[in-house]
Design brief:
This protein is of the alpha+beta class. The chain contains 10 helices and 14 strands. It has helices at about 10-55, 70-80, 150-195, 215-265, 265-305, 310-330, 350-365, 400-405, 415-420, 425-435; strands at about 60, 65-70, 85-90, 95-100, 115-120, 125-135, 140-145, 305-310, 330-335, 345, 375-385, 385-395, 440-445, 450-460.
């Protein structure tokens, strides 16, 4: 079904509310009218029974026969009614007429009942009858019949007076509810119009003046979704920009090395160029891995769940993994403080990424001056309710005013530029990983102002407010 054919939300709410309410009101009105009609009928019947009793009191025994001691005028006075027509009949128990209409006959009451009401059609008109039995001075029955115009009029008035006010109240309630529902749902219409006017690139939060908690929750959830989409789109744009920017130069360098090698005729020159191409390819491969890590870190920001992580075990594994590379480079790689169990709130993959990038940077750029042994130390220490992970080398270091620039994407530092290694993404990854885990990152110099130091301050597992 197309949206244009679907009912509106206010219409559905009104139907779901008013339909059961109208049904309940209709049942209530019917019950009320039924009860009122029952008691009205009883009042009419009592009046009819009183007329029969008055006539029966005027029947006396004259000799051996019963006679009605009322004249025609007196009977008309007894049975007078401005609206209805009344008929009567007095007869013995065996049906012998005494007075009144001889053809007025109804079913007699069963003993021990003394009277009986009934509806019948007599002389072409509907009447209400009552038969009253008297046992003294001799058994006889008095029948009084009355037309039912007043009864019908009373029923019509009861239905009219009961139904019309209910319908008016229901209409008033429907109007009031439609207005209230329209006002409460107007923020949804504003939200629809705001989203309909937006372009695909506009992911800013939507302002909704909510009047109910449900609409406010919907607006909040929608804005949260827009924020996540904005972060995702921004991450995709940054990834595409990083790939286009960072890969252009190394790929152009590989192409230049290949062209230069093809222009040479000596196998030795070919080998040198192939070795340079292989080194450039390794650099491009590492650059692609770091760009993918940055993109994944941006995607993980929305759904990252921090859990207790054994930081000492992750440090031990990372150091063991980098020992062969450190030995091949002649660097003394060591670790301190990992003999004490240390559990922090974080993500094992992100912590491993921090250690990998910091150790890789230290082994690349932390080479000591000539005549000194190069050393890289990974330290783990407890500081109150925090654990501090630090990686330090004894290389040339970096002035304090330039250290903050290293956490920006594409910033390498003078040593990296001289070595022609890296793409300036390692510390940017470390900074983003630390932020995702609510950890604090700081840069500085090593002991005695020599070398370079990067410290990450984690929250211990179980810290209040963590």
């Amino acid at each position: 079904m197309t949206p244009a054919r679907l009912p509106t939300l206010p219409a559905r709410l009104l139907r779901h509310v008013l339909a059961p309410l109208a049904l309940v009101w209709a049942l209530g009105t019917a019950i009320s009218v039924g009860i009122a009609w029952h008691f009205t009928q009883r009042a009419f019947d009592h009046s009819l029974l009183d007329d029969a009793a008055l006539i029966a009191s005027s029947v006396q025994l004259q000799g051996e026969q019963l006679e009605l001691m009322l004249t025609a005028r007196e009977v008309n006075r007894v049975l007078f009614d401005q609206v209805e027509t009344l008929y009567f009949s007095v007869a013995t128990r065996n049906g012998q007429p005494i007075a009144g209409a001889r053809d007025l006959r109804v079913a007699l009451p069963e003993v021990p009942a003394t009277h009986r009401f009934a509806d019948m059609l007599w002389r072409g008109q509907a009447v209400r009858t009552v038969v009253l039995h008297r046992a003294t001075p001799q058994p006889f029955d008095v029948i009084v019949a009355q037309t039912i115009h007043s009864r019908r009029a009373a029923l019509q008035r009861l239905v009219l007076f009961a139904l019309v006010p209910q319908l008016l109240l229901l209409a008033l309630l429907a109007w009031s509810m439609r207005r209230a529902i329209g006002e409460d749902l107007s923020p949804l219409q504003q939200l629809q119009q705001a989203l309909g006017r937006r372009s695909a690139n506009d992911l800013a939060p939507v302002h909704v003046e909510a009047r109910t908690r449900d609409v406010a929750t919907l607006a909040s959830a929608l804005n949260d979704l827009l924020a996540r989409l904005e972060r995702s789109v921004r991450g995709q744009r940054e990834f595409a920009g990083n790939v286009a920017h960072e890969l252009r130069t190394p790929l152009a360098g590989i192409r230049a090395l290949a062209d230069y090698g093809l222009a040479q005729s000596e196998p030795r020159a070919w080998r040198e160029q192939l070795e340079r191409i292989a080194a450039s390819q390794a650099r491009v491969s590492r650059l692609v891995d770091q760009l993918l890590d940055l993109a994944l870190a941006s995607e993980a920001e929305a759904g990252l769940k921090l859990e207790p992580v054994r930081l000492d075990e992750l440090v031990r594994d990372a150091v063991l993994r980098f020992l062969p590379r450190a030995d091949a480079a002649g660097v003394d790689l060591g670790a301190t403080g990992i003999d004490v169990p240390c559990t922090v709130r974080g993500d094992a993959t992100l912590v491993d990424g921090i250690l990998t990038n910091l150790l890789d940077n230290a082994l690349r750029y932390g080479t000591a001056a000539a005549g000194e042994a190069s050393a890289v130390t990974v330290s783990l220490a407890l500081d109150g309710l925090h654990a501090v992970l630090s990686v330090q080398d004894n290389g040339p270091g970096l002035p304090g005013e330039l250290q903050a620039q290293l956490v920006q994407r594409g910033a390498q530092g003078e040593t990296g530029q001289l070595l022609g290694q890296g793409a300036g993404l390692g510390l940017a990854l470390v900074a983003q990983y630390a932020r995702l885990m609510n950890a604090a990152m700081s840069l500085g110099s090593g002991e005695g102002g020599r070398g370079w130091l990067c410290a990450i301050r984690f929250q211990l597992a179980g810290e209040p407010g963590a």
